[in-house]
Here is the input.
Amino acid sequence: MTEQDVARVLTRRGALPALMTAIGILVALIVLGFLGATFSSLAVIADPVVDGSFFGAIWSGQLVGSLAGPLPIALGAFLCFWQIAPIAASLRLGHVVTRAVLAATAGALLLFVVTLAFTLILWAIGLVGSATGLHATSTPTSPAVLAFRALSVLVSVLPVVVLGAILLWGWLQRHPLDYKVSGTLDEV
Here is the structure.
């Protein structure tokens, strides 16, 4: 990739609509995660068999999980809607949905890469710790397990990303841009 190619990519117009859509997707996923965590916690508390002292542990675990997934998904959607397959007012609904599926897949792939890197770093820290006698060594999570978790996240976030793309498409139809929207997918 030449300097001209990099400059062309970084100066591609359309970052603001893509960014606003990604922020909307991020907020929606965080709100849905918080609601899911709240209802899961309330279900545990309402169960007379379960001790209520688990509430804090369950709530914190749910919160960490609800924040860890949405950020890579939103970042992947932003990059896809800006660089790879932007949404334009002239597209048909089928194309918008297809591009949204691509954006959600890009986010899930990014989530997989980030989770794999984090898992490998923790595993390496565990190895160093066991060599120095500080920690016990744990086996890292299999990449296949991480891939299936990323696919599970993809399935759960897909409706939100598709809705975000459709809302962006509708907004662009009512507020036409003064420039042509195109991405890497359109240049092929």
Q: What stands out?
A: The chain has seven helices and no strands. The mean pLDDT is 84. The helical segments are 3-10, 15-46, 55-68, 70-84, 93-132, 143-174, 184-187.
